[in-house]
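stage 2 :: seqdesign
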């Protein structure tokens, strides 16, 4: 019973997150299309840098500064994308 309730809560949360993302994209696009495209490009470059840091052969020592932040950002974005993919396909919001 608890598993079914958790599944419903996660599905509703994923649908709400998807709806918020669409609303933010719509509102930012209506305010400044150029800034929206520039921001999306910068975010894409940041996530690509994080993916490169995550997937390349590890070097000795710890990651510092931007590399650590980019790696954490990429990991968070990949986890969020997987969450949305798994749970929004089960709801009727699409």
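stage 2 :: out
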């Amino acid at each position: 019973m608890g598993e079914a309730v958790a599944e419903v809560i996660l599905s509703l949360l994923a649908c709400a997150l998807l709806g918020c993302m669409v609303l933010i994209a719509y509102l930012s696009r209506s305010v400044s299309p150029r800034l929206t495209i520039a921001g999306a490009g910068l975010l894409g470059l940041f996530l690509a840098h994080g993916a490169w840091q995550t997937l390349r052969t590890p070097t000795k020592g710890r990651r510092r500064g931007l590399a650590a932040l980019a790696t954490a950002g990429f990991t968070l974005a990949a986890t969020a994308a997987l969450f949305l993919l798994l749970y929004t396909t089960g709801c009727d919001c699409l």
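stage 3 :: structure notes
- The two ends are 26 Å apart (CA to CA).
- The first helix runs from residue 2 to 31.
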